[in-house]
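Fold it.
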Amino acid sequence: MTSSEVGAGSGERPVLLVLADSLSYYGPKGGLPSDHPGIWPNIVARQLGWDVELVARIGWTSRDVWWALTQDPRVWSAVPRAGAVVFAVGGMDSLPSPLPTALREQLRYVRPPALRRVVRSGYQWLQPRLAPLGWPVALPPRLSVEYLESSRAALEYMRPELPVIGTLPSVHRSEAYGKVHAGRPGAVAAITTWSEEKNVPLVDLAEAVRANVFSDQGNPDGIHWGWDGHTEVAAAMLTAIRAAAVVPDSAEGAVPADPVSSGAE
């Protein structure tokens, strides 16, 4: 079965299942709903003539992909119809996190609210000042690859023919992280080795968005992208999916990727 044949006989279109961090749904002014026409998952799905299931949250790492795959019923319902699965994470894994990741993730649970605000303010003050150390990162490369491989192997067990696309981390110029990204080379090396061993196609997010991130067209936070970034990622992702999923160059029902005319701001 090829990905273009998924759902044959049921009248259902294939699904592009994207497990991602906030880079997948943030634009130049902030977060956007998952059906916004200007974000790259929807650009890709339109071009392929597929549906899209975007499962993502801000700050997600490769570990969260595994948790989503094993715990989120939206993912379970999408896998049988999936034409391809994209692991669009890795950027957060490689960012400096000199304070424990567990501390950051637990801030929302601090009570009472007044104490929570104090603790969060302290964390936000310390993070950019300690980030220039460049270490430790939010998730070490060895663990990132372990979670990616666990996720890939689980999908292979359920759907041996299902294409899985990985990504290399994006770049940033964020003051919140001291404009430091010393963990990226190690992450790139580990993910590349994994992709070669397991025959997982990779999209280099940094290559696609570098010009946008370091221009005045990206998000002012220095991490998230502008519309040109989403367009470039979509183009790279389409090339990878078409090669891996054996889909037509011009899928039936596809429409041009034009975020401006589609209502993107």
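The two ends are 39 Å apart (CA to CA).
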